Amino acid sequence: MTDFRKGIRDKKRIIVKVGSSNLTHETGKLNYHRIDRLVRDIADLANQGKQMILVSSGAVSAGMGPLGLTQRPSSIREKQAVAAVGQGILLHTYEKMFREYGQVVGQVLLTRMDAQDRNKFMNSRNTLLTMLDMGIIPIINENDVVAVDEFKIGDNDTLSAMVSTIVEADLLILVSDVDGLYTANPQNHRDAKIIPVVEEIDKHFYDIAGGAGTSIGTGGMRTKIQAAAIATSAGADMVIATGIDDGVVHRICEGENIGTLFVAKETNIHAKKRWLLSGSKPAGYLLVDAGCRRAIIERGSSLLPVGIVDVKGDFQVGDIVTVTYDGLPVAKGVVNYDSASIMALKGHQTQDIADILGHEGIYEEVIHRDNLVSIQ
Q: What is the torsional sign of CA 285, 288, 294, 300?
């Protein structure tokens, strides 16, 4: 079997995402011991010449202690208010600890709009790449204080995958409260074993993914699988590992067999397709048949009307949609027709477009291959 871990030592641009459960005690207050170990690992890797990015949860958790809260707030307004307190506390903690190890950090707060709008996507990309070139370690979190549902990413697993597409990362490490992807839920199946390497993400891995590991975090295993699909499609390896063990980030970067490694696809996608991958919220969904899925994934084909079996959502020309098969995302792309027109065209041959729409079709493809990117 191929040893995919060997190449990890050579990874240069690395994103580390750490979950709330690894930053806090059960009381909800910050766990300074674990934070210091994480900071020490990242600082040491930066000293080796690697470009490091930290995607950190914990703003809400960090704000709970000073406000005397013992349970995570449930309403959006309360979460935003607590995050407003916690973001400052968390960044101050990171800044102080990184400074002790000779590193400079800078805070970057993102929302889904920063990926959904292409100009904002490019601005975010330019800022982050400039920070890395200047030797600054970006500390990234979702802007919980102002994010609303429409533009909310929702979990930092997805955010970290979005960042990996923006900056063309080589490696994404999810430091979690679970030590990898298991063959079954280890809480219910005592004989479950860690899957060391996943070369291709298929429906099987979504089926065995469980729910959230703790009451503190928001991302379960399914969100990690979805993050892996995005990151690996953009050319980044991804590792899921527990943060309980000392020096886990450093050991992963040394090629040690820890957690579950999701192997990156060999790809060289341009900035436009990275924008499509980066987490833009789809305006709708196109359900396709098996032959269409195969053509997109294996041959990089355009999406033609004949392969579409159903349309979900109300969207317009130029909107971003997700292409799905068997309930799982296959690709994302920019549509040449609105949802009503695609509903009329689905299942038909290209030469039928003019007769069905009552006018000459401008495009033969529902989505052209140049505006379509695979996520399987």
A: negative
- Domain 282-374 falls in which CATH fold? 2.30.130
pLDDT the model gives residue 216: 36
Domain 6-273: CATH superfamily is Acetylglutamate kinase-like (3.40.1160.10)
What tokens were used for 278?
């980066």
Is the full-model pTM beyond 0.90?
no
Those residues with Cβ within 8 angstroms of residue 176's Cβ, 6 or more apart along the chain or in another chain: 19, 21, 22, 213, 217, 219, 224, 240, 241, 242, 243
Are 20 and 56 spatial neighbours (Cβ–Cβ below 8 Å)?
A: no
Question: Would you mind telling me the total number of residues written for the chain in this entry?
Answer: 376
Q: Would the CA dihedral through 187, 189, 194, 198 be positive or negative?
A: negative
Q: DSSP readout, 219-250? A: -BHHHHHHHHHHHHHTT-EEEEEESSSTTHHH
CA distances from 244 to 5, 22, 35, 37, 57 (A): 21, 7, 11, 10, 16
- Kindly tell me if the per-residue pLDDT of 270 is higher than 60: yes
pLDDT digits 0-9 by tens, 146-188: 555 544 555 789 889 999 999 999 999 999 888 899 988 777 7
